[in-house]
Amino acid sequence: MELTQQLKDNYREADLTEAELAMLEFAELLTIQPANVVESDIERLREVGWVDEDIVDIVHQTAMYNYMVRVADGLGVELSERMQDAEVRDAEAVDTRTWGRKNQEALASTAGDD
Fold this sequence. Notes:
Blueprint: H1 3-10, H2 18-32, H3 39-47, H4 52-74, H5 81-93, H6 101-110
Helix pairs in contact: 2-3, 2-4
């Protein structure tokens, strides 16, 4: 199976390096639960080989994409017909209901550790 399809199906099970997986998990956390990003999340990126300049790029790219989506949504920008077709197609291949679940479960399991 090609990598694109693996990523659509479940990026955690795709043929990725440890560094790539950590980057995507971090980007997901930053997107879904930005207030829950802590120093250990940054340290995890360093542990798998990302340097601070890379981490800044990861944060900027994630934030920029999220910003653009929120501006478009906030202004009611409609997708072009081509993009609507792609969104429908991708919705059939990507189950976004599980996004963030791993991080939510991890946060819930450590909530009583304080």
